[in-house]
Amino acid sequence: MAHYVGILDGSGGAWGVRVPDLPGCHGGGETAEAAIADAVSAAREWAEHRHAKTGALPAARGLAQIIADEKTDLRPHEMAVMIPVFVESGRPVRANLSLDASLLAAIDEAAKARGLTRSAFVASAAREKIAAEC
């Protein structure tokens, strides 16, 4: 998983995040948290599309490089946030996990309610948890 620097802007009554190293990648929302979550989703979609076309993602620059870049045009009211980007390899790997029986039953129930397999549900939950903690 790579982490890209995003620029969070809350001026003008709306929140937005732009990701300078992923041209055209933006997120937005009514709160800073919603804008960051949207930017994480947008960055993943951007990266998956780019990966499918070229097989390569742009290198993630560090915060100092982003700030020093005149193209970033960082304004005084803006701040940097880290945007995790996870691109799946498309190669499933079997894993053996040990879980409490009642937790496994709850996972199966939640997966069924969403029309997912157990594996798809657990993978989705893991992605969400990893993205939320970055």
Summary keywords:
134 residues, alpha+beta, Double Stranded RNA Binding Domain, four-stranded antiparallel beta sheet, 4 helices, 4 strands
Describe, in plain words, how this protein is organized in 3D.
It is built from 4 helices and 4 strands, in the order E-E-E-H-H-E-H-H. With 134 residues, the chain is an alpha+beta fold. It has 2 domains: 89 residues, Double Stranded RNA Binding Domain (2-Layer Sandwich), CATH 3.30.160; 43 residues. It has a 4-stranded antiparallel β-sheet, with helices on one face. Helix 3 packs across helix 4. The longest helix has 23 residues. The protein is elongated and about 55 Å long. The N and C termini lie close together (11 Å).
Q: Helicity level, as a percent range?
A: 40-55%
Q: Which ranges are low-confidence, i.e. pLDDT below 50, for 5 or more consecutive residues?
A: none
> Could you give the order of the helices and strands?
EEEHHEHH
Mean pLDDT: 90
Q: In CATH, what is the class of the largest domain?
A: Alpha Beta
End-to-end Cα distance: 11 Å
Estimate nothing, just give the exact number of structural domains: 2
Proportion of strand residues:
15-25%
Q: What is the count of β-strands?
A: 4
What's the helix count?
4
Helix-and-strand structural type? alpha+beta
Write the CATH fold name of the largest domain: Double Stranded RNA Binding Domain
Described by strand count, sense and barrel closure, the largest sheet is: 4 strands, antiparallel
Strand order of the largest sheet: 3-2-1-4
Q: Can you name the CATH architecture of the largest domain?
A: 2-Layer Sandwich
